[in-house]
Design goal:
- The chain has about 170 residues and is of the alpha+beta class.
- It has a single domain, classed as Heat Shock Protein 90 (2-Layer Sandwich), CATH 3.30.565.10.
- The chain has five helices and five strands, in the order H-E-H-H-E-E-H-E-E-H.
- The protein has a five-stranded antiparallel sheet, sandwiched between helices.
- Helix 2 runs antiparallel to helix 3 and helix 3 packs across helix 4.
- The longest helix is centred in the middle third of the chain and has 22 residues.
- The protein is globular.
Length: about 170
């Protein structure tokens, strides 16, 4: 079955941004493979991001990918994750997919504005603060279950590429 993409075609992105960078990596759902994937993703974009932007990307991806390993597959011996990131003129479009159990919709519940105040980490169950951080730092966060596959996508706004070239 052909893989569907959350992103515009690379040719269209290169034309609109002047410099598209694409990262696509499939790896086993293990803590060591997550660490290696994070390192590879950051290395791919280090020249088109500030240090702060790279830290934000690393935090979001670490939370998502480690949640997949810990909760989507749990004690299962097998599992895989696919991470795709595209740098365009507005920032990074990221997608994570896996074939583990479905993501509880409460993780993505954005609620009313007053419910989005920063929670007290001590009052949250283990892992509860991570989803708050993801929702706080990423935009256009979306999830759907397609067959037996989880598809999570988000955008991380970055300073325009043109500003980086001028600076």
């Amino acid at each position: 079955m052909p893989e569907r993409s959350f992103f515009s075609s690379p040719a269209r992105m290169a034309k609109s941004s002047g410099e598209a960078r694409i990262f696509h990596h499939s790896f086993p759902a293990t803590p060591i493979a997550v660490r290696d994937a994070l390192r590879a993703a950051l290395a791919r974009f280090v020249r088109v991001m500030s240090e702060e932007e790279a830290g934000t990307l690393e935090l979001i991806l670490a939370e998502i990918l480690n949640n997949v390993v810990e909760h989507s597959y749990g004690e299962a011996e097998e599992g895989s994750i696919t991470l795709s990131i595209v740098r365009d003129a507005q920032g990074l479009s990221c997608s994570v997919s896996d074939d583990g159990i479905a993501l509880p919709m409460a993780c993505l519940n954005t609620g009313e504005p007053e419910s989005l105040t920063r929670p007290d980490p001590a009052a949250l169950p283990e892992g509860g603060f991570g989803w708050f951080l993801i929702r706080d730092l990423a935009t256009e966060l979306g999830y759907r279950r397609e067959g037996e596959r989880n598809l999570l996508a988000f955008r991380l706004p970055l300073a325009p590429l043109e500003d980086r070239k001028a600076g």
